[in-house]
Each structure stands twice: as structure tokens, then as C-alpha cells.
Amino acid sequence: MHRKILWTSIAVFFILILIVIYFFPIKKKIKKNTAIAFTADSLWTPPDTNLLPHDSIGNLIRYGRELIVHTAKYLGPKGSVAQITNGMNCDNCHINGGTTLFANNFSITAVSYPKFRKRRNRIENLVMRINGCFKRSLNGEVPGDSSREMKALVTYINWVSNKANKGRKNIFGTATEKLPFLSRAADTLKGKDIFMAQCQVCHGQNGEGKFLEGGREYLYPPLWGKQSYTNGAGIYQLSNFAGFVKNNMPFGTSYKKPFLSNEQAWDVAAYINSKPRPVFKELLKDWPDISGKPVDYPFGPYIDNFPESQHKYGPYNPILLADKKNPKATEVLSKK
């Protein structure tokens, strides 16, 4: 009799435990990759190409978008118009025709140019900016300032930029997210592990990319090697690339739901940018005033005594703190 009561009590005890677990599950502490906050007045909605008129201007805008999304189809090694680029598409860095938040979109481009650019110590207009992309990211020749292709690109970018933002410059999600600097150097070995686990399925084990059928343009772009972007591209600066990776990779990721942590984004960006790639032919003309070089610009000379390796991979805070005149030094101190 006592044994029966004992086993009944044990059974009731375990049933109660199961009920508690079911209705009141234990919450594990999970490190979340939180979405970026924004205000409603800063949110940008890109215009819809489906609403364009079917006239000469509308057709030119459509052609401009087509050139952004499928650059190689028209201007790549097998281009139907000219063969002047490496085979990558503008869309690889300016996702969805330059309309995706935190993917180098064109939301404020029209209201930003002409402007003074420290990299070349000169005022540049939009045509000069586009030419820079053709040389640096597409490792190619420029299409010609008066060509139909350049007119289409400029018209499209101006349309995307002006149609919705109405002259505003405080648009949410321009360029790429500026991730907090790590307290250590970005780790290429950790980055390789992340690449092999998350990136190589699309971009290839050797970063060679994958072609669409027919081989005219890439489905997934090469991340290093002779067909990839040069070491003069903006994305070769680690902070730019890490921010891009965080909110756009692996494919399908967005700023609302990032997949990688900040550290993982820094590390995999470092791994990719550690690999060989074309040398930008005009690299020595960049940053004639070396005092204006960004902290993560990977080529000397510098006004400080830190090595190129630290400028490329970090840690960056010691470099900032050594430059008392840099406004970001105050930022770093305030977070200590």
C-alpha cells in the first residue's frame, strides 16, 4: 500500500514538473543581432519604376536601372554595348538598383553632388563619381561622359534620389552601417571559418563567384581575384565592407534581421579583403593630404606611427586616441 502511494506521488511530481516547463519555459539568454532604430521622418521609400511614363525620359531611366542591375550584360567582358569592365554589376554593391537600405543606396546622391571629396582633394560631380566606380570597383574604363549609358545612369540616379527624398540629407539607411570598432584586430582566421560556413556556397571556396547560365554576368560576384573589385574601391576599407556585410549577407539578410554579429562581420570582411585582387592604377593619386586619411585606410604614409597592418585590420581606437585633434577620439574616451 505504501509503495503504491510512493509511486503515485512520484508520478504526480513529474507531471507537475512537465506542466511547469510547458507553460513557463526557461528563457535562455540569446545574444540578439538587434535591428537599427530609425525615426519615421528619416525613412526613405524608393520610387517605383512601374509608374514611369512610356516616353523618352521614362525609357532612359529604365535603361539606367538596367545598367545598374545588369552592368556586365552591356559593359562586361561579353557586353553587348562595350567590353570595358571586370564582369561585376553595380548592383553587387548598390543592391536592388541602389534602393536597399544600408546597401549603398542612391537616396541622397542627387543632393550630395557636386561636393568636395578629400580622397582626391577636389570637387567632384556625379559623372566623376560614377567614373570612379567604373575604375575602382569594376576595374575598367569609363563609358564616356556624353555616352547614352552615362546619361542613363545619371538620369536614373537623379530620379531615384530626387523622387522621394525632396532634398533631405538626413535619410535613414544611406551608405553602410558604421559598426562599433572592435577592441582587437579583425581576425582573418575566424573570418575564414565564417566564410566557409556561410559564404562559399554562393561565392565559391576560392571567392571566384558563380556565373549565370551563358557566362555573361555573375549570379554571385567574385570576392577576390582578377575579376573582383580593386584595392582602390571604397569597399576595400574594412569599416565600409563590415557594415555592408552585417546588413546584407548572407544573401537575403536585411538591416531588420541581420544574421551575423558585429564581430563576425568584421572578421569575415577582413578575411575577404586579405585576399589578392587587382591594384587600382591611380592609387598613388589618392589622399594627397594624408592628414585626411580615414583610420582604416590601408595604405601609408600616415601622420601617425601606426603600421599599415593596424590601419587595415585594427584595433582602431588606439590610433584615434593618439590623434587628439580627431573628434572621434572624444567619442572613444566617452565610452570608456
What are the main properties of this structure?
two-stranded antiparallel sheet, 336 residues, 4 strands, two-stranded antiparallel ribbon, Cytochrome Bc1 Complex, Chain D, domain 2, 2 domains, mainly alpha
What does this structure look like?
The chain is 41% helix and 3% strand. It is mostly helical. It has two domains: 52-165, Orthogonal Bundle (Cytochrome Bc1 Complex, Chain D, domain 2), CATH 1.10.760; 188-334, Cytochrome Bc1 Complex, Chain D, domain 2. The protein has a two-stranded antiparallel sheet. Strands 3-4 form a two-stranded antiparallel sheet. Helix 9 (238-248) crosses helix 10 (262-273). The longest helix is centred in the first third of the chain and has 22 residues, at 2-23.
Considering DSSP H and I runs of 4 or more, what fraction of the residues is helical?
A: 40-55%
Radius of gyration over alpha carbons? 25 Å
H/I helix tally: 13
Model regions low in confidence, pLDDT < 50 over at least 5 residues:
18-32
Q: Structural class of the helix and strand makeup?
A: mainly alpha
The largest β sheet comes out as: 2 strands, antiparallel
Quaternary state reads single chain
Helix and strand element order? HHHHHEEHHHEEHHHHH
Task: Tell me briefly what this model is.
The protein has 2 domains: 52-165, Cytochrome Bc1 Complex, Chain D, domain 2, CATH 1.10.760; 188-334, Cytochrome c-like domain (Cytochrome Bc1 Complex, Chain D, domain 2), CATH 1.10.760. It contains 13 helices and 4 strands.
